[in-house]
Design a protein that fits this description.
Blueprint lengths: L1 E6 L12 E5 L3 H11 L2 H6 L10 E5 L2 E2 L15 E6 L17 H5 L5 H6 L1 H4 L5 H10 L1 E5 L3 H13 L3 E5 L24 H12 L4 E5 L8 H5 L4 E4 L4 H14 L3 E7 L2 E7 L7 H4 L12 H4 L5 H18 L8 E6 L4 E6 L23 H4 L13 E2 L1 H10 L4 E4 L3 H4 L8 E2 L18 E4 L5 H11 L6 E4 L2 H9 L8
Parallel strand pairs: 1-5, 6-7, 6-9, 7-8, 9-10, 14-18, 15-16, 15-17, 17-18
Antiparallel strand pairs: 1-2, 3-4, 3-5, 10-11, 11-12, 12-13
The structure holds zinc ion (ZN).
The site of zinc ion (ZN) has 8 residues, from helix 11.
Length: about 500
């Protein structure tokens, strides 16, 4: 009867650093005798002077502790795995203050077969995860909203970890420009739905994971139904509507949320939605004006960053699932990877929060118009912003008529594609520098995606500028080839 003995890292000093050993035997006692023949020192690590297994060592046959079987007389069969895992006194999972979000009953419904023991052996050897933690991970259902670079890393790590069910929400398709920061898609996936491509990559990595695809946009109508089935929700979306929506829904459903965001070289991760901690509204009672915070595609992102931030997010999920470790509950971590600065900040629940505060005013998702709250709807009494199409602007430039073009992009964006003849004024300086504009002629505002240019027009209106203003629809992203057909577009 050949069995494989997996030796935890902290016991390997007794086995010349060998992590696994094949032994013959029909009982645990015989397996240990064979092990001792090869590595006599291991007995000192595992047994005390009376021949009893030391208090800090757990011995498992597959996923069963030998104490729940027949102790040293427990029988082993061909192909079984024997795990030697020290559980340092006072630090075992049982004494940890944090409770796992996966109940003992659900954990007990899961069993590890030999293939799973082999696949997850690196987790089983970690005292913090161990057999119980791995069972909880396998019993868990985690929803990941948003399959951009961050969501992709989170899904990839959770799938490798063996999370039983991973729900994935995204309605978008893979673009070439995504690949620079992606881990889950390849060039062949360009044009495919991100959700379908992600499902394929999970299957390839770990076919034991059940992936549930929601190829749709999260909305007030569907969010509660979608999250209802999950133990932990991960927000890896890139827009404020989704962030408020997910946070509110998690608070109302009593589910913990792991939140992460990134910008250029910086990442931010925290846990929201717990009864003792804040929600997204507590941290940010209102969203920034539309266009003020550039998206990743406007601001750029360093390719390793999603790996760092998404890896941290996945780690938080595993801590919530296993009920061990020190989580980001009540704190947030912010990392500047380019300048090597890391900060922990305390995050505090706002007693006046309308969703999780003492006197809640919001009890149902339907009570909020998220698009409106995030400023994506025009006020009925607000003067509409007039747009201009790329071909019309190209024709007006070609005709030589007097127009003013204001480029509100950042200097690094302008160095990728210059707009000849445009004057450059950052949004923050527009109100002060409005005298540089001629109210007698049309002024056209341009940016990369056509959102910051809208903010620029609103800013100038508020500052009292009365000249005619137009927004280049879709920004230079969609019009640069029309306006500059000979310039090779983006360099
Ligand atoms: Zn709150």
């Amino acid at each position: 009867m050949a069995v494989k003995v997996l030796i935890s890292a902290s016991l390997r000093s007794f086995t010349d650093r060998v992590p696994e050993f094949s032994a013959e035997g029909s009982t645990i006692k015989e397996v240990f005798d064979a092990l001792a023949d090869q590595y006599p020192d291991v007995l000192k690590g595992v047994f005390d002077e009376d021949g009893e297994i030391r208090g800090y060592v757990n011995v498992y046959i597959n996923d069963k502790n030998i104490y729940s079987l027949k102790g040293l007389k427990s029988e082993v069969k061909d192909g079984d795995f024997v795990l030697l895992i020290p559980a340092i006194a006072g630090g075992s999972q049982e004494t940890d203050k944090r409770e796992s979000v996966i109940s003992k009953e659900r954990m007990k419904e899961v069993a590890l077969d030999n293939k799973q023991i082999e696949r997850y052996s690196n987790h089983l050897q970690l005292r913090e995860i161990n057999v119980k933690g791995q069972k909880r991970i396998m019993a868990a259902k985690v929803l990941v909203a948003g399959l951009g670079a961050l969501g992709g890393v989170v899904v990839n790590r959770l799938a490798a970890a063996g999370v039983g069910t991973i729900g994935i929400v995204d309605f978008d398709e893979v673009a070439v420009s995504n690949l620079q920061s992606q881990t889950t898609y390849g060039t062949r996936d360009v044009g495919r739905p991100k959700a379908a491509a992600t499902k394929d990559s999970v299957k390839k990595l770990n076919p034991l994971v059940n992936t549930v695809v929601y190829q749709e946009k999260l909305t007030s109508e569907n969010v509660e139904d979608i999250i209802a089935d999950y133990d932990v929700v991960v927000d890896a979306t890139d827009n404020f509507v989704s962030r408020y929506l997910i946070s509110d829904a998690c608070v109302l459903a009593g589910k913990p949320e792991v939140f992460g965001a990134m910008y250029q070289f910086e990442g931010f991760v925290t846990i929201l939605g717990e009864s003792t901690g804040p929600c997204y509204r507590c941290l940010y009672p209102s969203p920034p004006p539309v266009g003020l915070v550039p998206t990743c595609s406007e601001a750029g992102v360093a390719s390793p960053l999603p790996g760092v931030v998404g890896g941290l997010m996945a780690t938080e999920v595993l801590k919530l699932l296993t009920g061990t470790g020190t989580t980001l509950s009540g704190k947030a971590i912010s990392i500047d990877t380019w300048n090597l600065r890391t900060n922990y900040v305390e995050t505090v629940k706002d007693a006046g929060c309308p969703v999780c505060g003492k006197h809640r005013t919001l009890h149902h998702i339907e009570e909020i118009d998220y698009e409106d709250f995030c400023g994506l709807k025009e006020e009925p009494d607000e003067e509409p912003i007039e747009g201009i199409e790329g071909d019309e602007l190209a024709a007006r430039i070609a005709s030589g008529e007097p127009i003013t073009i204001v480029d509100v992009r950042e200097p690094h964006e302008r160095s990728i594609l210059r707009f000849p003849g445009a004057i450059t004024i950052p949004i923050g300086q527009l109100a002060r520098r409005q005298k540089e504009l001629d109210p007698g002629i049309d002024t056209i505002f341009v940016c990369r995606e056509g959102k910051r240019s809208i903010l620029a027009i609103r800013t100038l209106r508020e500052a009292g500028y009365e000249g005619p203003m137009y927004n280049l629809k879709g920004g230079l992203d969609t019009t640069s080839q029309i306006i500059f057909p000979n310039e090779g577009a983006w360099l």
